[in-house]
Amino acid sequence: MPRYRRVFMLAVLLGLLSGCAVAPEEQVLQGVSNARDAFQAKPENPNEMVGQVDLFVPNDYVIEETADEFNRLITNGKNSFALVINPNEKATSTFFYDLQKVDSDQQWLVDETFQQNGRFGFTTVKEVAENQLELVVSAGGVSLTTTTNENELPKNMDWMMKTVRSIAKNE
């Protein structure tokens, strides 16, 4: 095949592939939709235990042991997620959301709250570095936090909300 033809074919292929890429705004919107759907859905069946608390964690994720049964690290490869369970908070609690709002000057990429049947939940996203976002997902007195990128937002918002919602004290 002549060289110019290969270059042309490569250019067309790259053009098609770049057109298939999902825009960052679409990733954020899909993530919020995933979190809302997971919040409103029936909680996942627990498959792990942290102290005296049953919860759902996706198959490839590991709950790391810590000295405190209410604070755990969930890992998946090189990704870490901080799980905080506040046993004094009910499903209606806005405690973790209020903590996010202490700095009134903070600029949020995402600040969405959810309410259903008296339960309260939210997801917030803020930029912490170039292509690095802090994601917080919470339902009642349970919170999960990670640092991620835009491409991972939809997946992380989904499983993280499913996990915080799976804890029975949230019902």
UniProtKB/TrEMBL annotation:
<feature type="signal peptide">
    <location>
        <begin position="1"/>
        <end position="23"/>
    </location>
</feature>
<protein>
    <recommendedName>
        <fullName>DUF4367 domain-containing protein</fullName>
    </recommendedName>
</protein>
<keyword id="KW-0732">Signal</keyword>
